[in-house]
Amino acid sequence: MPSSGSSRTSNKPRRAEQTAADLHRRSLRHETIFAGMVAVLLSVLAFAYCYPRNMLLLYGDAVAHLHIARRIVDSLNPGIRQIGSVWLPFPHLLMLPFALRMSWWQTGIAGAIPSMACYVLSVAGLWRLARYWLRPAGAVVATMFFALNPGLLYMQTTAMGEPVFLCQIVWSTLFLTAFLRALEAGNYRLAGRMIAACGIVLVTAIYTRYDAWVFACLVWLIALRAMLRARVSRSEVWKSRAGGAFLPFTAMLVAAPALWFAWNARQYGDWLDFMRGPYSAKAIELRTATPGAAMYPGWHSLHVAALYFLKAAELGAVPVRWANLLLILCIAGLVAALVKWRKCCVLPVLLLWMPVPFYAYSIAYGSVPIFIPLWWPHSFYNTRYGMEMLPAFALALGFLVARLLALAERRRGASYAPLLLLVSMVLIIVDTSALMRSTPIVLGEAIANSRTRIPFEQAYARALEQLPKQGMILVWTSDHIGAFQDAAIPLRRTINESDYYQWKAALAQPAQSAAWVIAADRDAVAQAVAAHPQGLTLLDIVCSTGQPCVRFYRSSLYASPR
Asked: Rounded CA gap, 306 and 358, in Å?
């Protein structure tokens, strides 16, 4: 029987290991907090640059996202039905509390606040993810490349969904990696917590972008594979905390898209309304395509579609002269990760490359074109989708630099490693500076596509400001809601296409339904005015180059409700 002295001696190594593990966890926590604090500084500096220059609402989609968030509470029929059917609802729900304030809705601050928060979380999450495999030097390279990207710094000041989705894929990958490591170490309690957290993040991602539906499926397959390949018996794994958490994790990932199908079926009569309804990408393509014109590049060609997506991703990350080199370096970094760290649960890194096949298919067969100024048709469209490759590029470069540092230390001595790290950091700063001087591609798209829209909406808003402060307005709002935003007109003062109880009746009797009727060329209100012109007097016309003319009518038959 061992003595008490020998028992105390045998416990010392175990306590030392626990102490070292605790110190490591605290150190990683402090590092992650520091990365987040640096991200806060970068985020605020980017906002301080963009806000005074009126850059927050350059994207028409940013204006539309804020419109949806606002109309949930400010409309004739407020409620959850106002979230619509094509764009997924989670970003709008994030903006909702901030869009309640009229000045924040007008300026775009309501969309910037959640986007900036997601940017900070994504930088902190990427640091923590990189540290699962890399020493601080490699993690610094990966995080710097991601956090200093000028396109991302601009997008995180807007109401666009990209910063939100980047945060979600980074953190879901982080939680999946933690789950795999805990499962491998036999810590089933921690594994259960991590897979549950991963499921919650994935549900929010499923309600943010359709890309996440494929991403979530791949995460589930990787987690299932790990459960089936656990070192202990299968029955023991499935009876553990990890197995208990995996079942609700699966249920969440199945229920989230199923609820969206049910929502579309209940509200719009078609469970696939978001794919084939009047506001879907396919319907928009059919409405906007020029008869007899050539289809967009990549149509029904997976190879060309993948090239356009990858080129958009490259141009969003580096200047054009470095684009091909970036892809070569990232592929080398990915190979290094799969070879060097293959025994360290590195499989989740492949998840971050999921956008390549997804967008190749979406461009080829999903009516989602991408135009870049470098290639035909030499214009901008959907270039922001390429931003989804930033985490993959950043981690791949981190792996590559880490591998080169290890080789330098082994063959040349430790003195070369700091120099290599310094060169890598300087190159990232040079890349950032070059992108800022040449205008990031996502900002270039925003500027190009707002050149005619913003002057038109400003003129439209000035005409709206001349209207009396009372009286209902019958108007189609989907195209130029920015004018009402600029003029600070509450949406509940309008009868528009989202007012499902009043809209059709108002179109049948426009003069009796509203004090003011605003019709744009060939929209539903213009057709109603042409069919029922009685009691309407034309007061004003607003026209602008590249935009439809808008006509203001006053009704002599409208009786204001008391």
From this structure: 9
Query: pLDDT per residue over 342-370, tens digit each?
Result: 777 888 999 999 999 999 999 999 989 99
> Which residues are CB-contacts of 529 (< 8 A; sequence separation ≥ 6)?
510, 517, 519, 536, 551, 553
Cα angle value 406/407/408 (rounded, 5°): 90
State residue 1's pLDDT score: 45
Secondary structure, 3-state, 408-457: HHHHCCCCHHHHHHHHHHHHHHHHHHHHHHHCCHHHHHHHHHHCCHHHHH
Q: Read off the pTM.
A: 0.94
Kindly state the DSSP code that residue 295 receives in the 8-state scheme.
Answer: P
Contact 113, 44 (CB under 8 A): no
Buried/exposed code over 303-315 (b: 16+ C-beta within 10 A; e: otherwise): ebbbbbbbbbbbb
Count of other CB atoms within 10 angstroms of residue 419: 11
| Residue showing tokens 């006053």 | 554
Q: Which residues, other chains included, contact 45 with Cβ-Cβ below 8 Å and sequence gap of 6+?
A: none
Please report where in the chains the tokens 């005074």 appear, as a residue. 52
